[in-house]
């Protein structure tokens, strides 16, 4: 009897292919490190007193806002790259498409950095759309039942929200045209075309821009793309969307607030307030129903967007808290999604029910996931606690007790529902005997870095970084 021929595992990279792609992940880490060193070098070398600096014929600008977010997104990307390098060595499926994945990620980061630096609203709008086109093929590599369907719906929702934003631009142009005013969408010139007089086209344009970008941030009512995309995408892609693309959309909102200082401030406040209310209520209801830890993190992101919207609706005293909250959320989202990816690789599921006693099976990842949940829920000594206290203080100073009460109630519901789902998963009795998993220090390294940054931002922040946060807060009427 002849032996049956051995069949090759389709998920395992061929030895020759593995040899040809071995350099890709280390190169990705190297490029990410160079981008991070460049952003830190600019932060150290260029004092705030010399800002803004205009580049590329004034199409790009380096000011406090762009400097802060270039630093944040490149720091996050370095952590994601190190995580991807550690996972690629032991994941055959990842080894097979690492080249295309790394190429898309680098293109995505180039576009995002240009978007953050953009000094023109239309250019920023285009770059956000291009970043979406780069991210969609990454989303399609996920493990959802229909990953391509998830990617197409992500593209559809992004196109819709950005189309609404573009219609807002057209309304502003119509307002200026009817008044016989030349309009430029450069960030430092658009205010010259605005009017303090009641103007329906101008108000409609502002409303549509905030509504469209709010959808891109995952604010209600245009939030439904976010939980599905964050859950269905690979964890590294979820982290990119939640901690990188989210922040370029935040920069776009900040630019609009900077442009409209003194124009329609009451209208801006009311729109952000309503979207913040709706987002917190939706997040609280959905977190109570969530039985999937990745989807739970996604709805917590909707909650975070609601807190940001409420803080921006108040402005003034809450502005510093909003900026600190946005920065800290970039790191905690990344920490949680990357740790969730590690849990998925061991347990093979995103459901909470099959997981119990994780901290005994995966002591390091379980502990880091627990820390991430504590940060997400606003525990001291992390930055999220300080940021939420500053936002609540600003809301009280503004005299909006309804917003204060709603935020406290919804955050309490989210706290209880999240704890009820996650804490038994981490510390509960194990379902059967499962051996302890050895974890690589390389996998843990970026997560430890994120935790360190979160503690530093919540306890002691270097003066030069505090001044940068204050400058950004002042630019949005803080």
TrEMBL record:
GO molecular function: NADH dehydrogenase (ubiquinone) activity; oxidoreductase activity
Chain ranges passing through the membrane: 23-46, 66-85, 106-128, 154-173, 204-226, 272-290, 296-315, 322-341, 361-387, 399-421
UniProt topology in membrane: Multi-pass membrane protein
GO biological process: ATP synthesis coupled electron transport
Residue stretches making up the NADH:quinone oxidoreductase/Mrp antiporter transmembrane domain: 118-409
Localization in the cell: Cell membrane; Membrane
Keywords, comma-separated and alphabetical: Cell membrane, Membrane, Oxidoreductase, Transmembrane, Transmembrane helix
Protein name per UniProt: NADH/ubiquinone/plastoquinone (Complex I)
Pfam family, one: Proton_antipo_M
Principal location listed in the UniProt entry: membrane
Domain of life, source organism: Bacteria
Single GO cellular component term: plasma membrane
């Amino acid at each position: 009897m002849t032996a049956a021929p051995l069949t090759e595992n389709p998920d395992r990279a061929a030895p020759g292919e593995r040899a040809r792609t071995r350099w890709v992940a280390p190169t990705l880490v190297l490029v990410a490190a160079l981008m991070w060193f460049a952003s830190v070098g600019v932060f150290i070398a260029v004092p705030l007193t010399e800002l803004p600096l205009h580049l590329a014929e004034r199409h790009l600008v380096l000011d406090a806002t762009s400097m802060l977010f270039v630093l944040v997104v490149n720091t996050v990307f370095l952590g994601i790259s190190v995580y991807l390098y550690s996972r690629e060595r032991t994941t055959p499926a990842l080894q097979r498409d690492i080249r295309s994945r790394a190429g898309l990620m680098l293109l995505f980061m180039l576009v995002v950095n240009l978007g953050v630096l953009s000094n023109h609203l239309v250019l920023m709008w285009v770059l956000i759309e291009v970043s979406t086109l780069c991210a969609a093929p990454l989303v399609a590599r996920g493990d959802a039942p229909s990953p391509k369907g998830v990617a197409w719906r992500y593209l559809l929702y992004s196109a819709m929200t950005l189309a609404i934003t573009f219609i807002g631009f057209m309304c502003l142009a119509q307002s200026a045209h009817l008044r016989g005013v030349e309009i430029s969408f450069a960030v430092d010139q658009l205010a010259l075309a605005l009017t303090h007089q009641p103007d329906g086209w101008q108000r409609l344009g502002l409303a549509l821009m905030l509504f469209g970008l709010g959808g891109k941030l995952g604010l209600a009512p245009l939030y439904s793309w976010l939980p599905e995309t964050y859950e269905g995408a690979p964890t590294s892609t979820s982290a990119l969307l939640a901690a990188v693309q989210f922040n370029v959309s935040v920069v776009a909102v900040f630019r609009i607030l900077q442009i409209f200082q003194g124009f329609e401030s009451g209208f801006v406040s009311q729109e952000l307030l309503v979207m913040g209310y709706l987002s917190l209520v939706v997040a609280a209801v959905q977190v109570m129903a969530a039985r999937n830890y990745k989807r739970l993190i996604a709805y917590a992101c909707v909650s975070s967007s609601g807190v940001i919207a409420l803080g921006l609706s108040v402005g003034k005293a809450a502005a510093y808290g909003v900026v600190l909250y946005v920065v800290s959320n970039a790191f905690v989202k990344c920490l949680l999604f990357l740790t969730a990816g590690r849990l998925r690789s061991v347990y093979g599921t995103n459901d909470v029910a099959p997981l119990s006693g994780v901290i005994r099976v995966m002591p390091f990842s379980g502990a880091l996931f627990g820390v991430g949940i504590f940060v997400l829920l606003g525990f001291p000594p992390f930055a999220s606690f300080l940021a939420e206290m500053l936002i609540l203080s600003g809301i009280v100073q503004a005299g909006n007790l309804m917003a204060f009460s709603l935020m406290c109630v919804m955050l309490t519901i989210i706290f209880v529902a999240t704890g009820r789902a996650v804490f038994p998963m981490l510390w509960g009795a194990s379902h059967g005997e499962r051996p302890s998993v050895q974890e690589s220090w390389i996998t843990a390294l970026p997560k430890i870095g994120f935790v360190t940054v979160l503690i530093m931002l919540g306890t002691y922040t270097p003066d030069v970084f505090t001044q940068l946060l204050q400058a950004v807060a002042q630019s949005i009427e803080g």
